[in-house]
Design goal:
The structure holds 2 protein chains of 2 kinds. By secondary structure, chain A is an all-beta fold. Helices cover 0% and strands 53% of the residues of chain A. In chain A, strands 2, 4, 5, 9, 10 and 11 form a 6-stranded mixed sheet that branches. In chain A, strands 1-3-8-7-6 form a 5-stranded antiparallel sheet, with no helix packed on it. The radius of gyration of chain A is 14 Å and the shape is globular. Chains A and B meet through strand 4, strand 5 and strand 10 of A and strand 4, strand 5, strand 9 and strand 10 of B.
């Protein structure tokens, strides 16, 4: 049973527009949420994170929103650039139990069209 | 900051052989993690070290798998009697101590079993 779901396997966006990637999780105990970007033949690169005490975190063009009641998080990229074309993974963790393992979704492939 | 380094990048071996991978974490990070990623999936947690102590193991880590971090610096992951199902990308990550610290990944070792 998937604990983290990224329901859109792919997304195409025009350069300069907003990209919105979505992620749903099932366990309300998760309290730390991250987004990673992955290019082919490379490992995942950390982008941005948010803890459960916040509902928004911004870093430059990237903003993560957390809706705890809906168990939903999203990543907004504004403006989108061709170099943002990659697979994006959301990941969740429950640090309260002293566990630091990340549980990942299956990823969304973002294509930014020039 | 030289990043997480993994060696080798690729390994091709025959079924039944033993293989060993190495991971060098970011130097000031005392936490080290191993994940496995197969096609179309997100990374799946295998095991976690804090310094030299292995504190968490996934049920995915069968008795053919063993991981060590003898001096709290680099780590090795050994797979004995490899099987076809072991073909995957093996990723290593590291993070500093403390709550809600993002994990930083290496580029992985791709294992192919003939």
């Amino acid at each position: 049973d998937q604990q983290v779901k990224q329901n859109s396997p792919s997304l195409s966006v025009q350069e300069g527009r907003i990209s919105i990637l979505n992620c749903d999780y099932t366990n309300s105990m998760f309290d730390y949420f991250l987004w990673y970007k992955k290019y082919p033949a490379e490992g995942p690169t950390f982008l941005i994170s948010i803890s459960s005490i916040k509902d928004k975190n911004e870093d430059g063009r990237f903003t993560v929103f957390l809706n705890k009641s809906a168990k939903h998080l999203s990543l907004h990229i504004v403006p989108s650039q061709p170099g943002d074309s990659a697979v994006y993974f959301c990941a969740v963790a429950y640090s309260g139990a002293g566990s630091y393992q990340l549980t990942f979704g299956k990823g969304t492939k973002l294509s930014v069209i020039p | 900051d030289t990043g997480v380094s993994q060696d080798p990048r690729h390994k091709i071996t025959k079924r039944g052989q033993n293989v060993t991978f190495r991971c060098d974490p970011i130097s000031e990070h005392n936490r080290l993690y191993w994940y496995r990623q197969t096609l179309g999936q997100g990374p799946e947690f295998l095991t976690y070290f804090q310094n030299e102590a292995q504190l968490e193991k996934s049920r995915l880590l069968s008795d053919r798998f063993s991981a060590e971090r003898p001096k709290g610096s680099f780590s090795t992951l050994e797979i004995q009697r490899t099987e076809q199902g072991d073909s995957a990308m093996y990723l290593c990550a590291s993070s500093p101590q403390g709550r809600n610290q993002p994990q930083h990944f290496g580029d992985g070792t791709r294992l192919s079993i003939l």
